[in-house]
């Protein structure tokens, strides 16, 4: 099939060449031989009257034209992919679709673990590739390599739709055998203590609480910095250190390790984890169904108060916002795609609701 004298089959090859910047890697991705891929590159060079890939030392770099083609070519293929996946109905019970989802290990622990548990019953053949957020995450969402992203506001990718999933506050976590901390912490004790911090995402991205405290007059003394949230317990047990973590994760860790959850004496605003997907996958029935499953799972999470204690009898502000967004109140069903919510601004209940109280 040719369009404007271009063999449209070559668009797939062009996309692989532009993203890998290597004939060999593009051939591996497309399950083609290197000679066949080289021939395709030659035809593409002839059509565009441009080298596209040029050698610089031992590497290949894109020409200015190739740089300009990268995004539109990928967007076209994503739109074609959406068209090919269109079906009058979607049945999760028989779907073998594989989803790539990027999120922090905190989100995987407290939220996605519940999602995949529900999916095991509703969509037993569905596959989930859970990946840690990295500096390449925006590129992965843009290219379609990752279908879904869960991240706080500051890590959202511009230009793609999003909706709030759940809210969390901050609590302190200490070793249960530590004699330094009693039933509570004062502000002075908090800043005088040694801390375990987390800088995640491969690119040493700091956490939301670290961002908030970076502008305060007093600084935490971080003696240990972990690359993931889930490594924090091993770095706390047997020490007098303190870790400031999302309350849901802190309580989860306290159930599994000899640790205690304490109210944080510093006022840190609550934060919201948002779900994002590619703009061209807005009407993908499988993505729509999975988003509905995410919303249902988020609404079933126990709420957390300002001081981090669970309140099973209350709904969090994020859950209320989600219910309002849903409008029709559609439920997740194994054989029906729930309608997607209309994007709306999330309401804050008050200046103090969902924040960590200051002592």
UniProtKB/TrEMBL annotation:
Keyword hit for Lyase: no
UniProt keywords (A-Z) are: DNA-binding, Transcription, Transcription regulation
Composition bias of kind Low complexity appears in: 315-330
Question: Where are the coiled-coil regions?
Answer: none
HTH lysR-type domain sequence ranges:
6-63
* Region spans: Disordered: 305-359
CDD domains documented for this protein:
PBP2_NodD
Q: Which domain of life is it from?
A: Bacteria
* Stored InterPro entries: LysR-type_TF (IPR050389), LysR_HTH_N (IPR000847), LysR_subst-bd (IPR005119), NodD_PBP2 (IPR037416), WH-like_DNA-bd_sf (IPR036388), WH_DNA-bd_sf (IPR036390)
Q: Which family does it belong to?
A: Belongs to the LysR transcriptional regulatory family.
In Swiss-Prot or TrEMBL terms, this protein is called LysR family transcriptional regulator
Q: Which organism is it from?
A: Pandoraea fibrosis
